[in-house]
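Journal club prep — side note

Before the paper discussion, L.F. wants everyone to see what a predicted structure for a comparable chain looks like in token form. Sequence:
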Amino acid sequence: MAAARRRVSREIRLGRDRRRLLAHRWPGNIRELAHTLERAIVFEESPVLDFPNLAAAAAVPEAAAKPGPEGDWLNPAFHFPAGGGFDLESAINRLVLMALKATKHNVTAAARLLGVTRDYVRYRLEEKGLARALEAEAPEQSPGIPAPRK
């Protein structure tokens, strides 16, 4: 926080809700917390940062944050194709794509929703071609998808 204060050259402090900030699960570790604080400092005009100002940057969208009861995430009417032909790799890719769409292409939020690391979601995007699939569906709506590395 001191480093962020020096960068913006103004006094900043956490508000009354700082306990919620400390209690929040930060799956992206300290870097995610630091980036969230920096974004809030840049966009907040008040010298007091309250947790609601930080929650938007750190939270999973409400629709994605409300899973059904335990075991209720898979459609009970699902059946394996007759004669085999089920492709687990494709099913995983579809789940990752669904999570990215539910989180408006936020890789960290999608990883949190899936219970995997950001690196795993990035791997699926880059190595399995999911970034191209997302861009093909809606090129103007995929600003958060990293370009595949060469």
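L.F.'s comment for the group: The chain has nine helices and two strands. Keep this in mind when we get to the figures.
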